[in-house]
Design brief:
332 residues, 2 strands, 75% helix, disordered N terminus, disordered C terminus
Length: 332
């Protein structure tokens, strides 16, 4: 009897893709006369993963629920201001500032979740509206940087252990906690169920609205962590941080990491690899001094190609099942 070779999971494939991107990137940089694995470039790659990583981890949770959050960039900008103004240059205010940032960002996530879950507003529209409200507040109340981050907290943005930034280690710790949460808790399992089919989940006794609300709260808090990192790096609050469109990078990393936009399939482990791929690409483009327009084109091409491959892989799996099911019925 012919045995079928086991197929690689999507997560395994994305990590193989990460290795491939590293190899190809290193070769391209070497041909250009550089070294991708020089300490400065390694630090740059890992530093880039931190901010996008915090946002992408939270984005993964809501996308798994078949939702979305386009307000995370604005939440991060507001969080940086809350942190910097609360600290006001005093190291003793750091615990209060961190707690207040997580509270504010969690409340923003709760507002998004309530609008999506209970008012049944499309998540694209709901979170875009929340983002615009935050943008209006930021543009009206802050004309530039505000607050003062003490040197003790700035270490969060700049301290390294060897070539590994502390912020990257914190991001990986948050990713590990999110992986545990999805795999080992009831709410984590319910997130997959709601994303797979909300109606079936509801008939199974799952309180789908609460699950959506919880996912959005956690997403908002991850954006708050990103805001804390922004404050640490800038030494002040940045009202214009949202102009960098961090939310689009986060969504790109999630999709690149194999999480389906339709929800119910994927995970944080793949997202971390997706974040790393984007960071490697950006570092390679910067080292090779590629034109910014060409850089965006190449990044877009990589993302589209990856999603197309995932879609084809999913179609192949779906196409196999009826044939096996038919064969089983005939044999019986």
């Amino acid at each position: 009897m012919k045995t079928l070779a086991p197929r690689l999971t999507t997560t395994a494939l994305i990590y193989l893709a990460l290795v491939g991107v590293l190899v190809l990137g290193a070769a391209a940089v070497a041909l250009d006369g550089g070294n991708l694995f020089a300490t400065a470039n390694l630090v740059d790659m890992l530093t880039r993963t931190s901010l996008t990583g915090f946002l992408a981890i939270g984005m993964t949770l809501v996308i798994l629920c078949r939702s979305l959050d386009l307000s995370v960039g604005y939440t991060a900008a507001l969080s940086s201001l809350v942190a910097a103004t609360t600290m006001d240059g005093q190291a003793g205010n750091i615990p209060l500032a961190v707690a207040l940032v997580l509270l504010v960002s969690g409340l923003i996530g709760a507002a998004n979740g309530a609008i999506v879950a209970y008012l049944k507003v499309n998540p694209f529209i709901a979170t875009l509206g929340t983002g615009l409200i935050l943008k209006g507040y930021l543009d009206t109340e802050y004309k530039g940087p505000a607050g003062d981050v003490p040197a003790a907290f700035q270490q969060f943005g700049y301290t390294r252990i060897a070539f590994v930034p502390v912020s990257a280690l914190v991001m990986l710790a948050v990713a590990a906690a999110a992986i545990w949460f999805l795999r080992s808790t009831r709410t984590g399992h319910h997130i997959y169920a709601v994303g797979g089919d909300a109606d079936v989940a509801r008939m199974s006794g799952i309180r789908t609205n609460r699950v959506l609300l919880a996912a959005h709260v956690l997403c908002g808090m991850c954006a708050g962590l990103a805001g804390l990192l922004l404050a640490a790096r800038f030494g002040t609050g940045s009202a214009e941080a949202y102009t960098n469109l961090y939310e689009l990078d986060a969504i790109a990393a999630v999709v690149l990491g194999g999480t389906l936009l339709l929800g119910g399939k994927g995970g944080v482990a793949g997202t971390v690899a997706g974040v790393a791929i984007l960071a490697v690409l950006d570092t390679v483009f910067n080292v090779m001094q590629i034109d910014p327009f060409a850089k965006d084109v190449l990044r877009g091409a990589v993302i589209i190609t990856a999603v197309a491959l995932y879609a084809r892989r999913q179609l192949d799996r779906t196409a196999r099942r009826p044939r096996f099911a038919t064969a089983a019925r005939r044999s019986s």
